[in-house]
Amino acid sequence: MAKHTTLYQHGTLALLVPGLLKGTMTMGELLKHGDTGIGTGEGLDGELIILDGKPYQIDASGRVNVVSNSFTMPFANIHYARYSPLAELENVSQDDLNEQIVSLSKAENTFFSVKITGTFSNIKTRAVRKSEPPFYTLAQTASHQSIFTRDQVDGTLISYYSPELFDGAAVAGFHHHFLSNDHQFGGHVLDFQLDKGDVSYQLFDTFEQHLPVNDKEYMQHDFSSDDIVGSIHTAE
Amino acid sequence: MAKHTTLYQHGTLALLVPGLLKGTMTMGELLKHGDTGIGTGEGLDGELIILDGKPYQIDASGRVNVVSNSFTMPFANIHYARYSPLAELENVSQDDLNEQIVSLSKAENTFFSVKITGTFSNIKTRAVRKSEPPFYTLAQTASHQSIFTRDQVDGTLISYYSPELFDGAAVAGFHHHFLSNDHQFGGHVLDFQLDKGDVSYQLFDTFEQHLPVNDKEYMQHDFSSDDIVGSIHTAE
């Protein structure tokens, strides 16, 4: 398997919907599969972004923390970065950018990652708040999240694009996380306006889906009555 | 990645629906990912079953052929066999067996493989017929398949179970292929009655989905108007 063409995923997005939020992989284990990624902690403990092998958590109070190798997660994506330049862009909105990237990349039917470094004229993020067992469902968590906004901020946005065919395993379309260069601001991106930035791109031919088979609650859960796709698109 | 807990898949089941049937991986490449598997050839050229690293094709005339390393496929599953005994069973139907396996394995939310060796009191298979470009859709192919039945036959059945969450990428539920010990009979299994056999089982924690990113027709296809799940369950 080619190291730079594989997107590794621990957990499947669907398990967040009924609140199967046990941390089933440690950060130490996850980092064996890449150096760049996104995710969340046990109980939906904040928003994670991994840059150059270093894992950062934006918690519900908006603080940016570096997490340890023993930090556990129910869901994360990671890959080995080898991005290629795609475009230098100025003054574009999130929607315009997503559209341009899909059109430039011609890769709507596979997984890819996008990295944007530059200055954002404004950016709106959220960070989810950890719940304790019995964990919140995804809908309950969404009502306990914090929203943050910042103007004129320099930083890095990491995004994964997943094809419609895999909606439910991943978020179909784009899923962006952000960290500012000063490590004072970040989170799961809800909206942004890019002032000026470099957009780069990395195509995957392999989606390596790892499931928490040792978690009895996951293995015994009946997903048939969960509205997976509906709940994900409401919350994400 | 643990060698014996990974199910590798080339192509995604959805691409068969609109007839994206180009052979996008050779058997030689596929065999780098396992020794046991199932699949189909370019244009839906018969039913494949791989046992102990040897790939057999049951063609639409019912003949069993050993295929070469240069044989190409749009879709295949393969893994490294390390099955554990699950049960010795007598006189069970396909439906009973599927139900018992799901109940014994407690693995409805992950991928696993089942291998049955024994005597089948009757078995009904089909083999699809190759089409040339422009390839048939899955529905058109289904109307050009051959059906075979055999009584009292000794052989091996290889099955993959996929969770409902991955329906469309794989066939949710069981997908069985068969080869008789005398190599005179086999195919995609439509129905069977097991007279007496050993059922063994192998659990996967990883589903490694490889996509044909170098096939322009796949990459540029608009899947939004294809009835993926409906067509798969009519045809399979």
UniProtKB/TrEMBL annotation, chains A, B:
Enzyme Commission designation: 4.1.1.5
Question: Which molecular-function annotations from GO does this UniProt entry contain?
Answer: acetolactate decarboxylase activity
Q: Which GO terms describe its biological process?
A: acetoin biosynthetic process
Xref: Pfam families: AAL_decarboxy
Q: What's its top-level EC category?
A: lyase
Q: Which chemical reaction does it catalyze?
A: (2S)-2-acetolactate + H(+) = (R)-acetoin + CO2
- Entry keyword annotation includes Lyase: yes
The pathway to which it is assigned is: Polyol metabolism; (R,R)-butane-2,3-diol biosynthesis; (R,R)-butane-2,3-diol from pyruvate: step 2/3
Q: Does the keyword Transmembrane helix apply?
A: no
Q: Which UniProt keywords apply?
A: Acetoin biosynthesis, Decarboxylase, Lyase
For this protein, the record's SUPFAM superfamilies field holds:
AF0104/ALDC/Ptd012-like
- InterPro entries given in the database record: Acetolactate_a_deCO2ase
Protein name stated in the entry: Alpha-acetolactate decarboxylase
Q: Which organism is it from?
A: Lentilactobacillus hilgardii (strain ATCC 8290 / DSM 20176 / CCUG 30140 / JCM 1155 / KCTC 3500 / NBRC 15886 / NCIMB 8040 / NRRL B-1843 / 9)
Lineage of producing organism? Bacteria, Bacillati, Bacillota, Bacilli, Lactobacillales
Protein's gene? budA
